[in-house]
Amino acid sequence: MSEPFRSGYVAIVGVPNAGKSTLMNSLIGEKLAIVSPKPQTTRNKILGILTTDHLQAVFLDTPGYLDPEYPLHRKMMESAKGALKESDLILALTDISIPGFAPIHPLLLSHLEEVRKKPVVILLNKTDRVSDDIIAKAVVFYQDQLPAARAVLPVSARDSVNLDLLLSRIGEFLPVHEPYFPPDDLSSHPVRFFIEEIIREKIFFQFDKEIPYSTAVQVIQYLEQQDRADKIEAEIIVERSSQKGILIGKNGTKLRDLGQAARMDIEKLVGKQVFLKLFVKVREKWRRDENQLKSFGY
Ligand SMILES: Nc1nc2c(ncn2[C@@H]2O[C@H](COP(=O)(O)OP(=O)(O)OP(=O)(O)O)[C@@H](O)[C@H]2O)c(=O)[nH]1
Ligand SMILES: [Mg+2]
Fold first, then answer.
1. pLDDT at 41
2. pLDDT at residue 1 tops 80
3. In this structure, what CATH number is given to the domain that contains residue 71?
4. CA 255, CA 247: separation in Å to the nearest integer?
5. 216-223 and 6-14: which strand pairing?
6. Same domain for 20 and 168?
7. Which of 9, 34, 223, 263 is 20 to 30 A from 179, comparing alpha carbons?
8. In a domain, 185, yes or no
9. Is 181 domain-assigned?
10. Please, which residues bridge with residue 232 across strands?
11. Does 185 score more than 70 pLDDT?
12. Measured from the CB, is residue 130 less than 6 Å from ligand 1?
């Protein structure tokens, strides 16, 4: 007799920069979630779907756990908590390349306590950067941090090391259930969302200091055109006019570079050529304003 089909939601949580988005992308085999070397890249709960012959795992990539400093941070922590509540299985990702290891964030521990009946698997990520000795020490350190965890598994999200094993462990924990999504679906977010994320990713790569953290992106127009490039207009929202100047650059060069980099990825996403027009707008203190946060999708 064949095994019954299993299906469920799998939350991926952990500190900023641990490699949560990288892990989800590697598991799914597509670059769905944006990734950057800077912390706090992910701001929303991002859904990614993996369907095999035996199972459907609906992954929820989340913003990294941090001490909230402003309302945007609080929204980010709410969305991580929401993912924990929706999930059937929790993958707690750690970065073991950090010397001495970082303890699991206290806010994550308290959120896990609220969902303590759910299985948690600890993933020790970035094993490609450390020795076997460090991996062995990390197993002990994190099992001690979270004694209720059902398993501790070393992985490299970037190099796809141990992900087959992880997938079979995921299968063990998912309930017997019909698939939630059609087998070919990779996500449930609209194309606009991914376009905004791609532009944000390029900002994370091309700008430093507070700029990536002070920007939001909104697609304001998407005009599909037959036999011609689609027309996309997007606004980049910043908090101060000085930031607007930095984003635009001398003679508009910075904004042009940004638009070019984003356009290439957007074209891969939509599978055709696009015209991308970017505008920069100042919305003072948007990160602290509930209404603006909502209108920007947070
Ligand atoms: N060496 C190595 N680097 C990795 C691995 N996984 C992720 N990274 C790198 O770590 C950095 C952060 O990766 P992300 O996937 O953006 O991390 P995240 O946990 O989603 O971060 P936030 O969204 O900011 O919370 C990127 O530079 C990745 O390339 C890994 O297994 N090995
Ligand atoms: Mg991320």
1. 97
2. no
3. 3.40.50.300
4. 6
5. unpaired
6. yes
7. 34
8. no
9. no
10. 222, 276
11. yes
12. no
133-145, pLDDT tens digit by residue? 999 999 999 999 9
Distance 151 CA to ligand 1 centre (A): 22
214-271 pLDDT tens trace? 999 999 999 999 999 999 999 999 999 999 999 999 999 999 999 999 999 999 999 9
Helix (H, G, I), strand (E, B) or coil at 291: helix
Judgement on whether residues 237 and 139 belong to the same structural domain of the protein: no
Residue 2 has pLDDT above 90, yes or no: no
Helix axes 253-270, 241-248, angle to 10 degrees: 70
Flag whether 195 is in a domain: yes
pLDDT per position as a tens digit, 67-80: 999 999 999 999 99
> pLDDT averaged over the chain?
97
Instruction: Please tell me the distance from the alpha carbon of residue 176 to that of residue 167, in angstroms, as a whole number.
Output: 15
Please indicate, yes or no, whether residues 148 and 37 belong to a single structural domain of this protein. Answer: yes
Q: Are residues 25 and 166 in the same domain?
A: yes
Do residue 21 and residue 110 come from a single domain? Answer: yes
Instruction: Please identify, by atom number, the ligand 1 atom nearest to the C-alpha of residue 155.
Output: 31
Per the structure, the count of domains in the chain is 2
Q: Which of 59, 158, 161 to mutate to test the pocket of ligand 1 (most atoms within 8 A of CB)?
A: 158
pLDDT confidence of residue 3: 86
- How many A from CA of 22 to the centre of ligand 1? 6
Name, in order, each residue with C-beta under 8 angstroms of 253's C-beta and a sequence gap of 6 or more.
none
Pick the residue whose CA is nearest to atom 1 on ligand 1: 126
Beta-bridge mates of residue 176: 6
Residues 44 and 141 in one domain: yes
Token pair of 230 as six digits: 């689609």
Residue 44, ligand 1, Cβ within 6 A: no
Residue 112: name the closest of 74, 151, 146 by CA: 146
Is the CB of 249 inside a 6 Å radius of any atom of ligand 1?
A: no
Whether 94 lines ligand 1, by a CB cut-off of 6 Å, is no
Share of the chain above pLDDT 90, in %: 99
Same domain for 43 and 165: yes
